[in-house]
Design the sequence.
């Protein structure tokens, strides 16, 4: 996990009391970016290949991609109820990466876009827009709540706040201008 990652997210501080919530813990290792020059990227790979982001597997530089991969991996478990395995998209045959999971009719198309965008980050300067994705996923959750005829959307609101707080860690700083 990369520490001191600046963001544009606004975090709402609310107490949930007895409301059940999900908290991701044990990020294992972390890199304090304050110890490095602005724009420093890394090429090291984690020991377990199944937990390595696409950039690590392809020996490409990464900064926040590994953190985003961890988020995507966690979301994959929630959507597909299985661990994520990443592979090259056989239909495209252009180096595009995808998950081996099969997208059934019950899984909304937005998840295909989500996994495509987060598994195919072009480089360290062109990360997915986390604000856009937070809004899209929030809308999806509200639509699903309506579809399921849930009377109370408190869990959706709670998820949005928790998602904002979690994504808050991953918004990168724009590169400093060079003279």
Sequence:
């Amino acid at each position: 996990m990369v520490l001191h990652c600046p963001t544009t997210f606004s975090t709402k501080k609310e107490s949930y009391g007895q409301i059940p919530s999900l908290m991701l813990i044990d990020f294992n290792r972390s890199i304090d970016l304050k110890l490095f020059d602005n724009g420093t990227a890394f090429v090291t790979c984690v020991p377990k290949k199944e937990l390595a982001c696409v950039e690590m597997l392809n020996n490409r530089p990464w900064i926040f991609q590994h953190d985003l991969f961890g988020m995507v991996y966690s979301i994959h478990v929630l959507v597909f109820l299985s661990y994520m395995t990443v592979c090259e998209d056989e239909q495209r045959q252009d180096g595009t990466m995808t998950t081996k999971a099969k997208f059934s009719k019950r899984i909304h198309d937005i998840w295909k876009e989500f996994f495509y965008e987060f598994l195919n980050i072009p480089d360290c300067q062109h990360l997915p827009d986390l604000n856009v994705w937070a809004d899209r996923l929030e809308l999806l959750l509200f639509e699903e709540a309506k579809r399921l005829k849930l009377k109370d959307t408190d869990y959706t609101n709670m998820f949005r706040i928790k998602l904002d707080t979690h994504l808050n860690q991953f918004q990168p700083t724009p590169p400093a201008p060079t003279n």
